[in-house]
């Protein structure tokens, strides 16, 4: 879950620096944010893989990257839903979802990837 959180934070930081090119039309997420998100989650995964016994650096990197991609995709989906919302009330209802959905989506991915990598 740390990797998913790092991916969202790094992705939003990258979007604050440079938003263009946007990932899809109407999104507030850019390509730099995507690259930084995956790199941050993979790097943190490698660090955690080295420190925890059943993982290695390579498996930690794969686990971190998988969690990061899942979190970024969920963050992008929430962003696109907010862009399609018809009024401010519907947009405000999506704000808590934007905070929680990346972690909720990354949790089963983390479990499945860890089961595949550790056994």
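^ structure tokens above, recovered residues below v
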């Amino acid at each position: 879950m740390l990797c998913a959180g790092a991916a969202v934070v790094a992705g939003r930081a990258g979007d604050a620096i440079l938003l263009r090119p946007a990932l899809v039309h109407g999104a507030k997420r850019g390509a730099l944010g995507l690259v930084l998100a995956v790199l941050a989650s993979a790097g943190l995964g490698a660090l955690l893989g080295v420190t925890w016994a059943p993982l290695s650096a390579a498996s930690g990197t794969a686990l971190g990257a998988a969690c990061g991609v899942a979190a970024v995709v969920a963050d992008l989906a929430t962003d696109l839903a907010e862009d399609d919302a018809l009024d401010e009330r519907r947009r405000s209802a999506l704000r808590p979802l934007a905070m929680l959905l990346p972690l909720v989506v990354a949790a089963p991915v983390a479990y499945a990837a860890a089961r595949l990598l550790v056994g």
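The chain has one domain: 2-118.
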